Amino acid sequence: MRLQFKPVYCPILVTLLCLTPGLLPEGGEDLLQYQRTAVQTNEWWRLITAHFVHLGWEHLLMNLAGLWLIWHLFVRHENALTGCAFRLPLLALGTSLGLLWLTPEVSWYRGLSGVLHGLLITSLLHQASIQPRSSIALLSLIMTKIAWEQLSGPLPGSESWVAGRVIVDAHLYGGISGVLIWGIERGYSQLRHHEVTG
Q1: CATH number for the domain including 66?
Q2: 70 inside domain
Q3: Does residue 4 belong to any structural domain of this protein?
Q4: Mean pLDDT over residues 170-183, rounded?
């Protein structure tokens, strides 16, 4: 019998990946975080693993709460396997490459927030054809937040919540990656539809 990939599997997997670095010996998490100089010396795994390490328990719990909320409200209604195997790795890669290529002053980074911004935007863009009013309203809010951060810095109080510096450019690059992924998925879907009907 074929094993079905249930929607809940993905947030469980991501939660486990985020909890695992905390079990490593002292200094182990440093080998996983985004470190600009290390990436430039071919430690490419950091482009992905950076998103599974956090500044502390507060940061971790806030990101995991965001992941479960986004997944429950939006992603579970779509193809969960596509979301887990395609979107999340590409969002992580897009966020890290944005920091590497466009924000050289950021020497290191940890956290899932860039990926979460992209995941939310991708999901809302897909939902817009089904629930346009609520989706467009939420898209406007998240894009306004990203724009605010670019102009004025982190939202008031956010750095105290995570007990560290908030890298707002990660949110921007995650959001841009989310739009690009939505475009790729939409184009692929239309191409397949054309092949079936044509």
Answers
A1: 1.20.1540.10
A2: yes
A3: no
A4: 97
Sign of CA dihedral 109, 181, 82, 132: positive
Q: Tell me the three state secondary structure of residue 110.
A: coil
Distance in angstroms (rounded) separating the CA atoms of residues 119 and 29: 24
Structural domain span for residue 86: 9-197
- For the stretch 14-51, pLDDT in tens is 999 999 998 889 889 999 999 999 999 999 999 999 99
Of residues 69, 71, 66, 65, the one with CA closest to residue 84: 71
Q: Is 109 helix (H, G, I), strand (E, B) or coil?
A: strand
Collapsing DSSP to helix, strand or coil, 83 comes out as helix
Task: Please spell the DSSP secondary structure of 118-168, one letter per residue.
Answer: HHHHHHHHHHTTTSHHHHHHHHHHHHHHHHHHHHH-SPTTHHHHHTS---H
* pTM reported for the whole predicted model: 0.93
- Domain count for the chain, please give it: 1
Task: Give 163 or 96, the one with higher predicted confidence.
Answer: 96
The residues, ordered by sequence, that sit 6+ positions from 8 with a Cβ below 8 Å of its Cβ are 76
Report helix angle 57-73 to 113-127, nearest 10.
Answer: 10
User: In this structure, is residue 61 part of a structural domain?
Assistant: yes
Would residue 85 count as lying in a domain?
Answer: yes
Q: Please say whether the dihedral angle defined by the alpha carbons of residues 74, 188, 182 and 80, taken in this order, is positive or negative.
A: positive
